[in-house]
Request: fold
Amino acid sequence: MSEIINTKIISSSKGPRLWVEGVKLGSNGFVKGESYSRVVSGSSIILKSDPEGKYKVSGKSRNGQSLPIIDLCGKWLDKLYSVNDLVTAKIDNGVITIKLHHEGMALKDREKRLLSKEKLSEGALCYGIGVSAHAISKSLEDSNIDSTLDLAMELETKYLQVANKNNEYLGANTKIFQGKIEECNPEEIPTIDILSLSLPCTGHSPQGKTKNAIKKAEEHSSDATAIFGAMKVIYKSNPSIIISENVVQAKDSATYILFKSELRRLGYEVFETTLDHTHSNALEKRKRYWFVAISKNVSKGFSLDSLNNIKIEKRFRRISDVIKEGESSYFSSQCFKKREEINKKAGRGFKCNFVTGRDEFVNVIPRNYTKRQVSNPHYLNPENQEEVRLFSPREHALIKGIPPHLVKEIAATTAHEGLGQSILYSHAYLIANLLAYHIKELRRQNTIKKAS
Reply:
């Protein structure tokens, strides 16, 4: 007759304490007052019902019944576990085997990897054309943190094809999954040290809710279940660090509240911030919610607060600095002006959004940019005020601070889709830069600790 009990190591005046109270203790020979033996094997404790044993089963009374208890206490437990560690006690055939819970083992493993591995492994979910993943890899490389992209998961084949052509960090050894992340086979997921993910944002954004006739992101017909895929990957890959980005409305959604709660339960500390164009060197006014989750015992000292005070030198001051004539064709702006008039009469607030070379910022350029919607930014012809054009993919990339080679020689529609749902490049770069500094400081302290 077997039983499995999960319990935590608690603190007492005599040192760490482990209390095991199960319904199967008595039927396995652990009766109050009876003897048992104790053997420590590695990080496990093995207790056997043994008339010659030197330890006694404790107990208490409840409703007139005597209930057996195994009460282990003393500083000797310090060598095996820490206070608040979750342990598993398996009772079977007169033997109790106590070991660190599998989630505790995972925590210790990921923290050890972060401190000791020479080359860290990266993974990215909802990869797109790889802008965010590229920024993270580039930042780690510039900070002298050696890493490789070992996992990339993306629903759209065409975006993976773009990344495979232009993204230098998507290497020959990168394991690629094409399809919904919730449909992946966990057995195929490698161990990852730094995992980045940008879960689908359509259900969270006001525009997405309106278009899909939903009130909550969790009602979205296809995107809502992505969180289950993300957790499946996290459970299996056991990352030391998780970097997540989404629209600001996602922060307080049920999905993200549960997401962060589960990460904390697993032993991560979660750090949150909201970043916009003032935290970047970009020309686009794109606001995004970010969080970083770090395994709790290697999180001390990390903070995102410095991002609010950082001064970033802009590469380009005005829109004219990224313009190259001939990359995109002008067309009459009359169609937009007519649509604006129709919208005005209908009480809709969609207005023309014409941008000049003198402007220092533009509003968000979305993924459906090539549809020429009236409210999207269009560049006004400096030679003819009656003509406008789309920004070219190269210009679009530079406006977001994205290296333009990531969309080199790619069809404009696909390029704009990939860029339109991407981040401001410097956001991910700066966050990864903070993480790189934190990792190096952790390793420095660990080296000093070992030497002493």
Residues 317 and 362 are 12 Å apart (CA to CA). The chain has a mean pLDDT of 93. Residues 425-451 form the longest helix (27 residues). The chain has two domains: 3-100, 106-318+421-451.
